[in-house]
Amino acid sequence: MADRTPTSRFGRSARIGGLVAGQGARVAGGKLLDKARGDESRERAQRKRTAAVVEQVVVQLGSMKGAAMKFGQVLSTIDLPGLEQEDSERIKARLAELRDNAPKVEFSKMEKLMAAEWGQPVDKVLRELDREPIAAASIGQVYRGVTHDGDEVAIKVQYPGIAEAVDADLRNMKILLPLIGRLAPGLDTNAVAEELRERVTEELDYELEAQNHRRMARAWRGHPFVRIPAVDTSLSTRRVLVTEMIQGGQPFSAVKELPESDRDAFAEMVFRFFYGCATRLDLVCGDPHPGNFLRLPDGTVSFFDFGMMRQLPAGYSKRESVIFSAVRDEDAAGVARGLRDLGYLPDSFDFPDELVYEHMRRTGAWMFDWEPPVRLSGESAHRLMDDVLAIGGEWRSMVRGFDMPPEALLMRRMENILFGVACDLRAAADWGALWAEFFLDEPYDTEIGRLEREWALDRVA
């Protein structure tokens, strides 16, 4: 499928402007109709209208590549108030389909960019280069190649003109923010936009991604189940990133068909990697979707794609652990205090601590209340949402008052995606104990956990 994504600032502005105008009119028209409805009918209509608008925004942005696609991806993982779980899951599925079936840019254009980056014809650098990409995403495509030394490599190449498209998207973001603000009144849209601006701008620099990649390789060297492919520094440039090709890896679709014990182990390894990065390295990997890790033949997992990263303030995860601990200890005041300290509750927030606690307890019931080991599934998210909606009363107004601290945006995106990964895998664990290992230093006693602790002790020694 050929790529017909608009690349000019005018074309992208027109597409985003048309999207905002159309969906804004839907929101305004719906509010007029709401005046003739009863309370229950009005609330149901509002939920469905929000879902329809969010779906159109996410899907349209998700088809555009560049920062627009990235904004759609981030928006799809934010828990917008009033969105039914089934609608949320459908939106995420639509976006995943767009991501996995992204239109391909023709090979001749990508080859020309590679030659320009390397300063010589591609055949002078590579002995082989497949013409069909093995992956396509928001910023670039990945090809398989073989160097003249016989090394099989993965070559990630930026789309020609993508930097200009991203710049146009970032300038156009202000057009979109008022609509997002109407859908999620408690969300600091300007802070979210600024965070996204910084992360996507960094993601365009493959030299920076290569540094992140090498940092990960050093941090996880010798690990019992984490594998990071090596970067070929000599061939990597600002717009081309070359790494070791992963051999024999099973994609996520194949892992989902494995026996329970293999799926459980895979899920625990994936959780340990991403939470290990966040709590031990103060680094959040903002794009942990299943296309960025593979199960290797020996049962270990290879991780890659470190473009969307955020360096957290030192000790940030320990501040978040206060909230986790307070929920577990049924300390409503402690939960509210921890959320306020991190910026989730603005100065204008004026709801009872007990209501805040009840929301946090029910959204985290799979860690705090369900009898372990908990085998997650597609129904788990529905069960959680039903329990949260049952709070009733002031709950909906309260969650609209929550804010999203910029430094927490990628952390929450990571968590939401990982929860979805575990549900898709139908994986089981004592999830609360696993979280407590990373946030409260309470070892989770599994064979995988013991292997990781032995590795950590060896590195200290």
UniProtKB/TrEMBL annotation:
<keyword id="KW-0547">Nucleotide-binding</keyword>
<keyword id="KW-0067">ATP-binding</keyword>
<feature type="domain" description="Protein kinase">
    <location>
        <begin position="128"/>
        <end position="461"/>
    </location>
</feature>
<dbReference type="InterPro" id="IPR034646">
    <property type="entry name" value="ADCK3_dom"/>
</dbReference>
<dbReference type="InterPro" id="IPR051409">
    <property type="entry name" value="Atypical_kinase_ADCK"/>
</dbReference>
<comment type="similarity">
    <text>Belongs to the protein kinase superfamily. ADCK protein kinase family.</text>
</comment>
<dbReference type="GO" id="GO:0004672">
    <property type="term" value="F:protein kinase activity"/>
</dbReference>
<dbReference type="InterPro" id="IPR004147">
    <property type="entry name" value="ABC1_dom"/>
</dbReference>
<dbReference type="InterPro" id="IPR000719">
    <property type="entry name" value="Prot_kinase_dom"/>
</dbReference>
<keyword id="KW-0808">Transferase</keyword>
<dbReference type="GO" id="GO:0005524">
    <property type="term" value="F:ATP binding"/>
</dbReference>
<dbReference type="InterPro" id="IPR011009">
    <property type="entry name" value="Kinase-like_dom_sf"/>
</dbReference>
<protein>
    <submittedName>
        <fullName>ABC transporter</fullName>
    </submittedName>
</protein>
<dbReference type="Pfam" id="PF03109">
    <property type="entry name" value="ABC1"/>
</dbReference>
